[in-house]
Automatic annotation (TrEMBL):
SUPFAM superfamilies cross-referenced by the UniProt entry: Protein kinase-like (PK-like)
Stored InterPro entries: AGP_Transferase, Kinase-like_dom_sf
Protein name: Phosphotransferase enzyme family protein, variant 1
Organism lineage: Eukaryota, Fungi, Dikarya, Ascomycota, Pezizomycotina
Top-rank taxon: Eukaryota
């Protein structure tokens, strides 16, 4: 969140302190309390115009992803360490699976190797090694939130900017622990993969993020096999 606040215009909670407790191996963040409701809770009650307003703001924040990525050529987490998305999780750090990667091809191999790491048949991993380079190729790196769900967006109505027909809704984006530099398809694909389809939120994602229709089908299969 410190990086996002400094480098972008995306609204995030203010961080007051960071500290670790080595005795129990936990890290802590002391940050601003956001006294608002989640977008997930409010979504069904919003008017079409209010949804359009929120989505337009989220789309404008999406444009900052290229700016923060212009000097980055390595797929890595926000702290420049191992990737924190669940698809790359291993009990112990495995350089071939979750370390920073300098090419998209290396990232593809990591997802295939994760398949055999979990004691699955290597034939399927070999199949992924054949296919993934044709799907996941030629994407530039983008700064990525990594969990773009409406439960991670807080909403507050601004009483000073209300009109007769609509409220002005301010947003704050939470849950940045999985953020980092990933291929440009990653944000859209993870947003779709996380959908529960209990409302129409998924139909608005294309107005916020660039579409990667082919990539999302493949990444959803990989996430189901490698994490669920």
């Amino acid at each position: 969140m410190l990086f996002v606040r400094e480098m972008t215009k995306v609204p995030v909670p203010r961080v007051y302190a960071l500290y670790s407790n080595p005795q129990i191996g936990k890290n802590y963040i002391v940050m601003e309390h956001i006294a608002r409701e989640t977008l997930a809770k409010l979504w069904a009650s919003l008017t079409g115009a209010e949804k359009e307003s929120i989505v337009a703001k989220l789309h404008s924040y999406n444009t900052t992803r290229s700016y923060t990525s212009c000097h980055h050529q390595v797929t890595m987490s926000i702290d420049k360490q191992t990737l924190l998305d669940e698809i790359f999780w291993t009990q112990h750090t495995e350089a071939m699976i979750n370390s920073p990667f300098i090419t998209e091809a290396a990232l593809n191999k990591a997802m295939a190797w994760k398949y055999t790491h979990d004691s699955r048949p290597h034939y399927k991993a070999d199949f992924y090694c054949q296919c993934l380079p044709h799907i996941f190729c030629g994407h530039k790196l983008m700064f990525t939130h990594g969990d773009c769900q409406h439960k991670n967006i807080m909403i507050q109505s601004d009483p000073q900017r209300m009109t007769a027909n609509n409220r002005t809704l301010e947003i704050v984006i939470l849950d940045w622990e999985k953020s980092g530099w990933y291929p440009s398809y990653w944000e859209y694909c993870l947003a779709v993969c996380a959908l529960c389809w209990d409302d129409d939120w998924g139909l608005w994602i294309e107005k916020m993020l660039d579409l990667f229709i082919s990539e999302v089908s493949w990444l959803q299969i990989l996430r189901l096999e490698l994490w669920s």
